[in-house]
Amino acid sequence: MLPFLLAVVALLLTAAGLYIRSRHRFWSDRGIPCAPNPEFLFGHVRGQVTNKHAAYVNRELYQQFKARGEGFGGYSFFAVPAVIIVDPELVKTILVRDFAVFHDRGIYNNPKDDPLSGQLFLLEGLQWKILRQMLTPTFTSGRMKAMFGTIMDVAEEFRQFLVDSRERESVIEMKEVLASFTTDVIGTCAFGIECNTLKNPDSDFLKYGKKVFEQRMSTLFKFIFASLFKDLARKLGVKITDAGVEKFFLGLVRETVEFREKNNVMRNDFMNLLLQLKNKGRLVDQLDEADEVAARGLTMEELAAQCFVFFIAGYETSSTTMNFCLYELAKNPDIQEKLREDIEEAVASNGGRVTYDLVMGLHYLDNVVNETLRKYPPIESLNRVPTSDYTVPGTKHVLPKQTMITIPIYALHHDPDFYLDPDNFDPDRFLPEAAQARHPYAFIPFGEGPRNCIGMRFGLMQTKIGLITLLRNFRFSPSAKTPDKIAFDVKSFVLSPDGGNYLRYDKIRFIMALLELYLAIGVTLVLATAGCVFLFLDKKRSFWKDRNFPCTGRAKMIYGDYKNMNQTEHMQYINQRIYNEFKARKLPIGGTVLFLVPSTVVVDPDLIKAMLVKDFNFFHDRGVYNNPEVDPLTGHLFSLEGQAWRQLRAKLSPTFTSGKMKMMFSTILNVADDLKEFLWEKTESGSTELEMKNVLAGFTTDVIGSCAFGIECNSLRATQCRFREVSRKIFEQSVGQMLWMIVLMLFKGVATKLKLKATPAEVENFFTNMVQETIDHRERNNVQRSDFMNILIQMKNSTNLEEKLTLNEITAQSFIFFVAGFETSSTTMVNCLFELAMNPDIQEKLRAEIFKVCGEGDLTYESVSSVEYLNMVIDETLRKHPVVDSLLRTSTQPYNIPNTDLKIPKGTFVFIPVHALHHDPDYYPDPDRFDPERFNAENRASRHPFVYLPFGEGPRNCIGMRFGLMQTRVGLITVLRNFRVRPSSNTPERLVVNPKSGIPAPLGGIPLLIERI
């Protein structure tokens, strides 16, 4: 019998050995790049949990694959084949673009036998989706504001505790103290219980909280077994949660729920929200929904599981982040002082009150916290598993279903290609320009995509409140026991310091001294105001002279080089004169002063190309004031800057494809039929003089109204149209309005803090109400239309975060769609008809080609786009009468003009004078003559491509160019197929631009004779 048992054991050991070896060959057998030489038992993770933290193990793997130029690579997690991701673009693909394949973490959960594992972090598939939908409303900014006062109360107790402790000792171990603070916060916000762990360090909350994060080898191997053989583990009833932890949290939750329901207790905390979900399936201020989410409430076990994960996610991660942050601030006193001053200035300007909006609006604190999370991410890596076989984009490699995917956050955050000198603590890495220069998925402390950290807002709020409380009252410095470099606790799956963090802390008397300083500064400023204003104006006037930068040299004290602008002269003519002057001096660029704003006018088309395309990273912003938080209509694509613009451009680009244009084509044709019918009625008795500027403005208003809002404006016939009235307020600017815009642009930072608005209230109210009513009507009545609004509503309701739009974003885009599509297209058409009336031979040639290509039947998208001579006529119209006289850019960093010694300072306005370029006789001989042949293939090829810029160029060109050209072509074809246009006795000999118009629109009307063909 014994020999038989020994043989069986030997056979089982042999089989196990062969199995393990086959698992180690898993990736090499499939031709997938992998780490070499796995150890028999440990694979590639030897030392993990014993003497090396997983952060370092994964970083070594990451560096190994990156050095080989791989975007990902296979390795063995003990005996489990796994993949580590290196390429941040692939990280983005997994977390967002292909989220449908990677929505599960692959972590073992068994709510039946292990109730506390039925929490949002662990659940998979539909169970996760339903629970996420239920819980998402509990973490809105509104809910956070409701809990803000509760956290502030705990912070005050925390402050008093430290004040009392300071009387006894000057050095304190911050790890334990901060753990007590977050425990008290979570205990209060999640359970409504005053834990008071600061004074009672033996609290059960602390005891079991620490137990959760202790990672024993036996628990680790049980966890690996359960994750590897989930179905078997569930059948065997395997539990990962410690029995003591489970008993404590289930008992605590049950007692709390029973007490509240029995005594009808209501509190502004997380438990109260969960009770609403338990009893109603929704929060009391949510609308009723007849879906699976509202069909059932949370069970007691589900409620307990969410309280449990709320505790573990908010307790250790936030306390650890604050601990690491204070360590770095103690080691970097200059950063600590800068942050403290920034906090105190903000509090003083807020009347001495610390409010939710103030806490969340401290940008330097954001930078410090972000840099802490970069250097010490609480979760060192993200895990995902594909729910089906997955082909890695750009390769033929297939990752099998349920493969363990590791996204190494710590390694990404310490990659010197993304963060130079990654071990250095530098909050300026998170200044807007620095953050924009990096791949966005090289910083993911909270994950990304639909499965990012749901409690991110709460975690950041309690972290910031804790840090503000500490830094306003104490100064921190290293003690004799402070380590030079923090070592990580290898047994904790959260990145946590090994041992204590002993810091010296001293009370500070800062606020009164700061207030006294402000008072003294204020008196000084009042006395010096007159002199400062004069010096300021003079400094701006001589800005370029002082820098030996070529300029006009004629700038006046207030107007600069732009006197009479918006009064008697349009800006395009001023810029044309400046352009001609600089070109005569053979300068590629020259300095000007726009009122108080040092600006430049670019002359050389090669330099224009460099700015718009090659060096776009220096000139991606327009410098136009925007403040979407208080002025929602400024949050549109034309005004936004940096990452906000990039993200919105990426979202909106698919809405302007040729396919989407074809979808709206029939809507435009319907409005064109109304235009034809209107003109037909007006010419019933023969040739009739019509003011075509108003007629074509009515046409484009109806097009935009129909395509953007699904509204039949009928402005062709209506004597009064609300759309038209509002548009006049947008495009006709008084000198006061123009100066206000310049002030906002010049002092953007101050204007943003003061919450100043650029949009007139009447305009904002009109568009906000219009969009809200349109969306409400369509969603309530399930209205579907082939228009722009329908596309935006789809994006609003999308589950894909990369394309999702908020209501304010939709309103802003609808506003700019109207602004950009209404006046520009109508002005182009009226300018074109004026030129055709003055050049009948060109008109007849164009009409003949229209009939040849389009015939007399129905127009199609393809036929309209194929009238080549019409394209030439429109191009010549846009050359002679560009609807945007200049392109505006601002330098986001100092810029050296190529092949010169000249440098443009950061923040300088750059004008690219489109009108001046289009009227330069070196490029367009006899520029005032209307000649469509300038745009035949031969002539076009002979010119520099960047001397024709009606829609801009480069990544920030006009996104709506296709739509604008489509409605312009349809409008002109409709008129010219049915009518002949001629000058009348009232038609001006040449067009004069309205100096008060935001775009170069004709002054007064454009009367033309219209007659049927």
Radius of gyration: 34 Å
The fourth-level CATH homologous superfamily of the largest domain is Cytochrome P450
Tally the helices: what do you get?
39
Helix content: 40-55%
Say what oligomer this is.
Answer: single chain
Instruction: Just name the CATH architecture of the largest domain.
Output: Orthogonal Bundle
CATH class of the largest domain: Mainly Alpha
Side-by-side strand order of the widest sheet: 1-2-7-4
Residue runs with pLDDT of under 50 for 5 or more positions: 287-295
InterPro entries: Cyt_P450 (IPR001128), Cyt_P450_CS (IPR017972), Cyt_P450_E_grp-I (IPR002401), Cyt_P450_sf (IPR036396), Insect_CytP450_Detox (IPR050476)
Main location: endoplasmic reticulum
Family: Belongs to the cytochrome P450 family.
Subcellular location: Endoplasmic reticulum membrane; Microsome membrane
Structure characterization notes:
The chain is 52% helix and 8% strand. About 1% of the residues have low confidence. It has two domains: 324 residues, Cytochrome P450 (Cytochrome p450), CATH 1.10.630; 419 residues, Orthogonal Bundle (Cytochrome p450). Strand 5 and strand 6 form a beta hairpin. Helix 34 runs antiparallel to helix 36. With 1013 residues, the protein is α+β, with helices and mostly antiparallel strands.
